Amino acid sequence: MSTSLPLVFDAPKRATPPRHLADLDPTDRKAAIQELGLPAFRADQLARHYFGRLTADVEQMTDLPAAARAQLTTLLPPLVQTVKEQVCDDGQTRKTLWKGHDGTLAEMVLMGYPDRATVCISSQAGCGMACPFCATGQGGLQRNLSTGEIVDQVRQAAKAAQEGALGPDKRLSNIVFMGMGEPLANYKRVVAALRRITEPAPNGFGISPRGITVSTVGLVPAIDKLAQEGLPVTLAISLHTPDDELRDTLVPVNNRWKVGEVLDAGRRYAQTTGRRVSIEYALIRDVNDQPWRADLLGKVLRRHLGTKRVHVNLIPLNPTPGSEWDASPKPVEREFVRRVEAQGVSCTVRDTRGQEIDAACGQLAAANRT
Fold first, then answer.
1. How many helices (H) and strands (E) does the chain have?
2. Residue 229 bears catalytic tag
């Protein structure tokens, strides 16, 4: 296996998405409204519709004068337009392929559970981290998503849940930045999106930070920076193997920040925020599923993070078409869990969803890209 895969932190230059209400903080919204010749209080009215009522159609905002509505359309341009939707798991998993203003494709997945509704959203179109077992990584990075594009995925998911897409009485409560892209490589826009998502109406959706997870392959300086933002979201580290030799290949960013450095950053994050760190581990047959790696994983996590502030989330690999990678057999999976837990580290297997609808990140976009 080659370790010369490229890492792309800066997205290619592309046309910037149009300015959207969700791109703006409250002060900038008022300034934008005044630029349109409207009184500043219209900013709160518009934001209450968008964040509070989940409405992006100004024609439905009948408490606004017709003339004002016509002007305000410029702050609610269409950003996330559905190209295809696939549904499975008795309607409880809904994967949406969407395109941006420039035709760029990205994905989100809305999932219903007995006690919650969760949306998995994208932060980039494609990904520059080049992990070879990931469909998104195989496609490379097209561009960063704007704050508005990130936030509008959440609005659309919340609206769908509100309207009964997952059945009655389901309200969006959980958001995971585990779709396409490396969130911390689009740091500024992701943090701005987190603020819109967590702030109460009219400034945001009012979703608790404790219901939000941000996944990263381990961009150490960005992890440390996120810890200081006052946003106690859950940090998920995509580790996938406890040893540097294999991780250099599976997660090429490891050539820059080694396992110990990444886990130490996770420890600092947990100490600062009080939040437990999740360790994501895609279990791949005959690659990273050996018993000795399970033993080592438990020992390494205990050494760097302790046992109270870490949880291992094993992910049965969802193979991509034509890939050499495959999921580990269930007996191997169970033994892996047993060995990690024997080290005193909590370990569970992620619920698998949507294997029949190209649910692995990037599969649907790759299948529809021209």
1. 12, 12
2. no
Q: Is residue 288 assigned to a domain?
A: yes
Domain of residue 35, CATH code: 1.10.150.530
Show the domain range for 276.
Answer: 81-368
User: Does a structural domain hold residue 167?
Assistant: yes
Say if residue 49 is in the same domain as residue 108: no
Q: Binding residue per annotation — 238?
A: yes
Residue 127 annotated as part of some ligand binding site: yes
Beta-ladder partners of 111: 93, 118
pTM of the model: 0.93
199 annotated as belonging to a binding site for a ligand: no
Q: Which of 59, 107, 120, 347 is catalytic?
A: 107
pLDDT value for 6: 52
One domain, residues 52 and 146: no
Same domain, 156 and 233: yes
Do residue 149 and residue 198 come from a single domain?
Answer: yes
Mean pLDDT for back-to-back runs of 10 residues, the chain (370 residues): 51 79 97 96 97 96 94 95 92 94 94 94 96 88 97 97 93 96 98 98 96 98 98 98 98 98 98 97 97 98 96 89 86 98 97 61 55
Task: Please confirm, yes or no, whether 107 is among the known catalytic residues.
Answer: yes
Catalytic residue among 120, 149, 347, 361: 361
**43 and 31 in contact (C-beta within 8 Å)?**
no
d(CA 146, CA 9): 15
> Is 240 assigned to a binding site?
yes
- Look up residue 73 and give its two tokens: 């359309």
Q: Is 346 annotated as a binding residue?
A: no
Q: How many domains does the chain have?
A: 2
DSSP H helices, the chain, are: 26-35, 41-47, 66-72, 135-139, 147-162, 187-198, 220-227, 244-250, 259-273, 291-305, 330-342, 363-368
105 touches 227 (CB < 8 A): no
